[in-house]
Amino acid sequence: MQPARIAPRDRLIVALDLPSVASAEAMIDRLGDAVTFYKIGYQLGYAGGLILAKQLAGSGKKVFPDLKMHDIGNTVMRGVESVARLGATFLTVHAYPQTMKAAVEGRGGSSLKILAVTVLTSYDDDDLHAAGYRLGVSDLVEARARQAQALGVDGLVSSPEEAAALRKIVGHQMSLVTPGIRPAGAPTGDQKRVMTPGRAIAAGADYLVVGRPVMEAADPKASAEAIHAEIAQALA
Ligand code: C5P
User: Fold this and answer.
1) Residue 68: active-site member
2) Total domain count for the chain?
3) pTM over 0.85
4) DSSP string over 3-48
5) Out of 39, 54, 61, 68, which one is annotated catalytic?
């Protein structure tokens, strides 16, 4: 996918990190046409959010169930088939070769795109070694990015700081989706390594995932519009 072909407004993915479908629907109403793309993670997904995802897709929005799947191949493949039937646009899986292969099989020729999570950003080298890995974070991220590309995975989730390096490895064939975005002056919360929307786009990100800076803004719609403006400026 060539990044230049993605409309600037479709590059902002708002994370609906909310506890209930009712609170998510209220937020979606407030955001109106300012947001075209929503991410639904564990919190909302396990509270009825996947039914909401189907409704959103039916109403013309794009949806990204952030389910970070990982299981035996057959289970992953069948699960991905079900997510494809929701009408979702993106789905995350962990970047294990068997899992990625099964996910690509499960999405088949549907319009669903599979994103691989290379190494969770909360992991450092010590965490990987404690979990039994030989490689450190940067080597494992690179190895998994290459495996993802070879297996036909559609994109990668990474911190914005990894985006430029990953772009060099995978070229423009894969989408890069980056959380950890904070407009200048916004509280960082628990995110340690953040970038502004403009810098993340300049580093090579195709899509930006933004949660709290929109969810917790006094005026969420104005916050989303300001991010759109910054994305458009970075692309100009
Ligand atoms: O509120 P905030 O903008 O930090 O939300 C970022 C979203 O992206 C959350 O839904 C979080 O789970 C997700 N995410 C992340 N870092 C990753 C992967 C996903 O923050 N490495």
Assistant:
1) yes
2) 1
3) yes
4) GGGS-GGGGEEEE---SSHHHHHHHHHHHGGG--EEEE-HHHIIII
5) 68
